[in-house]
Amino acid sequence: ETGVTQTPRHLVMGMTNKKSLKCEQHLGHNAMYWYKQSAKKPLELMFVYNFKEQTENNSVPSRFSPECPNSSHLFLHLHTLQPEDSALYLCASSQKGGRNYNEQFFGPGTRLTVL
Amino acid sequence: AQSVTQLGSHVSVSEGALVLLRCNYSSSVPPYLFWYVQYPNQGLQLLLKYTTGATLVKGINGFEAEFKKSETSFHLTKPSAHMSDAAEYFCAVRSDTGNQFYFGTGTSLTVIP
């Protein structure tokens, strides 16, 4: 595998279900991100992890719970979601050099539908 | 604070015609600017980036962009559109602290045969 991979690619879940999205980067990067992409809206940054430590949480509801066990893996745990949470969830990684982050590399996304 | 505005959510060009996708940014510090492309059912792929130095930046697939500080713009161009260029294009600017990227709402490019 190369680049950034995400599984599953498609997920349909009910509002009472619990599921997890997985992201893995094979680029040796030290920062990982979760974004939400909804139609006609800018990409919404959800979480940022740097060296496994969460550095940003952009007011994301607690029904989304991230986990970063190491610099290569990132999870997004989902529970009691709402239909408006249906979107494409994108994972990205980048390399932090000094105080700045270089460009991000994106995975293919997980298309989530909440019924 | 940083922000990006992409003018025109939909752009249509004929095959072989010039492609021009507009991006204006707001940044209180010298910006790092990016253009990404997204094909259907795929993630975003970096086309090109401006960090420092030469203001005309060349990217993949024949695209280029010019950083114009006086106009706070970073427009994306390609001399001759190809059918395979049909996709969604996103402009982005990196934050002051360097740990966040702000994306525009995207421009959908349609190429007419």
Describe the protein's topology.
The complex is a heterodimer of chains A (115) and B (113).
Chain A: E1 4-7, E2 10-13, E3 18-25, E4 31-37, E5 44-50, E6 53-57, E7 64-70, E8 73-79, E9 87-94, E10 96-97, E11 100-101, E12 105-106, E13 110-114
Chain B: E1 3-7, E2 10-14, E3 19-26, E4 33-38, E5 44-50, E6 56-58, E7 64-68, E8 73-78, E9 87-94, E10 101-103, E11 107-112
Parallel strand pairs in B: 2-11
Antiparallel strand pairs in B: 1-3, 3-8, 4-5, 4-9, 6-7, 7-8, 9-10, 9-11
Please tell me about this protein's structure.
The complex is a heterodimer of chains A (115) and B (113). Chain A has no helices and 13 strands. With 115 residues, chain A is mainly beta. In chain A, a hairpin with a 6-residue loop joins strand 4 and strand 5 (44-50). Chain A is globular, with a radius of gyration of 13 Å. The termini of chain A are far apart. Chain B is mainly β and 113 residues long. Chain B has strands at residues 3-7, 10-14, 19-26, 33-38, 44-50, 56-58, 64-68, 73-78, 87-94, 101-103, 107-112. In chain B, strands 2, 4, 5, 9, 10 and 11 form a six-stranded mixed β-sheet that branches. Chain B has a five-stranded antiparallel β-sheet with strand order 1-3-8-7-6, with no helix packed on it. Chain B is globular and about 45 Å long. The mean pLDDT of chain B is 91. Chains A and B meet through strand 5, strand 11 and strand 12 of A and strand 5 and strand 10 of B.
